[in-house]
Design goal:
The chain has 163 residues and is mainly alpha-helical. It has seven helices and two strands. The protein has one domain. α2 packs antiparallel against α4 and α4 packs across α5.
Length: 163
């Protein structure tokens, strides 16, 4: 295969976070492949930006999980979920996520709104997950690190099966 003549490179290192993305662009590289990699870069940055700012996303994630439970994935469900954005429980989750820091609250609110929408399967921007549904040849990257349960000893698994 010939060497690519163009690249998109992204590398970030901040404390213990490292993100490296690279795509070599050849004449036969399709635009959807390039956009897929760009969406991966954006996804990496978006997730980490909240943490770097000091926003604890767990309270918001917990609120979203409860607020969208049983709603389904319809347009009506989307309207219902977005209406929960201004509930007192949502404001409480934002307050908890930001430890009362007023400067961070609007960013936490943006995270809340995006999570309400995304949990129902709607997209507000291009994502790798959405693109991989349209173009089956585009595969989501496998999660890095150990998978849950992979550290169990075979005897522990056998004991659980016997129980």
């Amino acid at each position: 295969m010939d060497e690519p003549d163009q690249y998109i490179d992204f590398m970030a290192k901040y404390k213990d976070w490292v993100a490296i993305k690279r795509i070599g662009i050849r004449p036969d590289t399709k635009p959807n492949e390039i956009a897929f990699y760009l969406a991966g870069i954006r996804g990496s940055i978006d997730r980490k930006a909240y943490t770097i700012l000091g926003i604890n996303t767990a309270p918001i994630d917990n609120y979203v999980k409860e607020a969208t439970k049983g709603l389904g994935k319809s347009n009506d469900a989307l309207v219902t979920a977005v209406s929960k954005y201004k509930e007192s429980a949502a404001r409480s989750a934002v307050e908890q996520a930001t430890a009362g820091n007023k400067d961070l609250q609007r960013f936490a609110e943006a995270y809340l709104l995006n999570q309400l929408i995304a949990t129902l399967g709607f997209e507000t921007s291009i994502s790798q997950a959405a693109m991989s549904k349209v173009w089956k040849e585009l595969k989501l990257p496998k999660p890095k690190g150990r998978l849950p349960g992979s550290g169990k000893k075979k005897t522990d698994v056998a004991d659980e099966a016997d129980a």
